[in-house]
Amino acid sequence: MSLSHAQRQKLLLIPIYIALTVAGIFTLIPFAWLVCAAFKTNADIFTSNFLPLGDGFLGVAWGRLTLVNFVRLFKELGIGVALTNSIFLSATSALLATFCCSLAGYALAKFRFAGRGLVTSLVLAALVVPGSLLMAPGYKLLYDLGLLNSFAGLILPGLTPAFGVFLFRQAMVNAVPATLIESARIDGAGEFRIFFTIVLPLVRPMIGAYLMITFLGTWNNFIGPQIVLQDPDSFPLSVAINQLRGLYGTDYGLIMSGTMVSIAPVLALFLLLQKEFIAGLTSGAVKG
Amino acid sequence: MSAPAARSAPASAAVVRRYRAEPVWVPWVFLAPFLLTFGVFLVWPLIQSVVMACQQTFGPKSTAWVGLANFSFLLQDPLFWKAVSNTALFAAGSVFLQLPVSLGLALLLNRPGLRGRTVFRLVFFAPSLVGLVFVGLLFSLIFAPRTGLVNSVLHDFFPAFDPEFPWLQIYVMPALILAALWLYAGFNMVYFLAALQGVPEELMEAAALDGAGPWHRFRHVVLPEILPVGTFVVLMSLLGSLQLFELPYILLIGAGPDNRGLTIVMYLYDNGFVTGDLGYASAVGWVLALLMGSFALGQRWLNKRQEES
Prior knowledge:
The structure holds 2 protein chains of 2 kinds.
Chain A: H1 5-38, H2 42-47, H3 68-76, H4 79-110, H5 116-127, H6 135-144, H7 151-155, H8 162-175, H9 178-186, H10 191-202, H11 204-220, H12 223-228, H13 237-247, H14 252-286
Helix pairs in contact in A: 1-14, 3-14, 4-8, 4-11, 4-13, 5-8, 9-10, 11-14, 13-14
Chain B: H1 4-21, H2 26-52, E1 55-58, E2 62-65, H3 69-76, H4 78-109, H5 117-125, H6 132-142, H7 149-157, H8 167-170, H9 172-196, H10 201-209, H11 214-242, H12 246-251, H13 264-274, H14 278-308
Antiparallel strand pairs in B: 1-2
Helix pairs in contact in B: 2-14, 4-9, 4-11, 4-13, 5-9, 9-11, 10-11, 11-14, 13-14
């Protein structure tokens, strides 16, 4: 019995599906385990791996699942404050950085002026400075400026990352036709109006991607707030959850639900924006 | 109303005048936030760090000039070399384990006729959204004695396995590399996949017609095409590995047993922000920057050689 070419190709796909599925399961297991544990009492965490076994639907004791960990997190331990701080810091940083970087990228991509080459090389030079080199002198600078223990001390240094300027410059060189800008000027449109109504809509995917990148970066930043902030009421989730672990390290249900609260919002956001995000991520970095 | 021809002449003159006059100040206004933050939060701290690297400090206020003593102490400190070798080990793990896995996943996903590519890509990419802090926490729970996923599963399948086995006391580096594999494999895969999708279809078909098997097609057609992206991903992984801090710091709650999880940046952090010697931390920062710079230059040199050959 002989198979046609198309049939052979289909058969060859089967091991590939199997390999991908196995890899996918390994990728998802830590998430699944975390979510299960977050809804279990500590007693059930000790006796079951994923869901507590019993005689409910599918052999799972659904009735033993509990919200007690989340109630403790929000009612007793005030993790809501940290959640609010994380949302505020990430949203503010993302909006400001996206605005400032797109402005600077537009200037470098679409204006001819003396000094453009110099500023472009400054952007490239800033890209290669490692963040850890700036940790100690940056701390001293924030101290001198009186910005320690303030949100401004976290937001201002990241106002216009060179990486973002570079990404927007690359995106705008091709996506924004010079003739469009010129004709808008002839029609008498102001420069900021041109930027908001013509330039920004043309790089919408890049805006989505960069908002996401900076939001994620701020949300997941640990060392910054760990160094800059001292007042526990100002801690974002990254620092607060780690502190919680220091205090209640053996209360696994609590730590797991806290970790879940920290991860779930960004995963949800990503699912909403994933198409733009992955497109922006690769277009910025691979073409260069 | 005047004739159209008469109207258009002065209008186009105005265009020329406007076009020349308009944008002179504009780019500088648009660049102002970048230039300001660049000057204040990059150039100034960089200058400061040169000065500070030659000082011993106690907190941000009191300083003493020590010249190059920080560097000579650093180079003699066995703890620093421990941090360097740990970091190098982790970097090797990233490059030799993580990147082949990433490339493998990308090759599988790039197979023509495969369905569900978007879903698989989404699943593999998801871990890279989780911050290093949270990955550290998650894996410290996964490797925990008794309640941890690894131990309880192993104990279920092999009852002789000790459920109290302390992975994070014994297999420090493998645990770190495994956590990083989970975190970054899908991230790097996205880059490889984008590169693979850029390999011309005709080239593959021509090679297949010439009788090239899968390995030869990969070695002689695919690999040369994706090499630029490959070296970029290798460099990014190396530079990222050199800056490793949060993952071990959270996973091991510090440097781990016998400092086996100590990294260069953790060494910097401990000296600068726990001991409070910002000057010494600046010196460590410069040594790290030199290391990273030499890797980046090495990559450029390699790229040039590839282009010439």
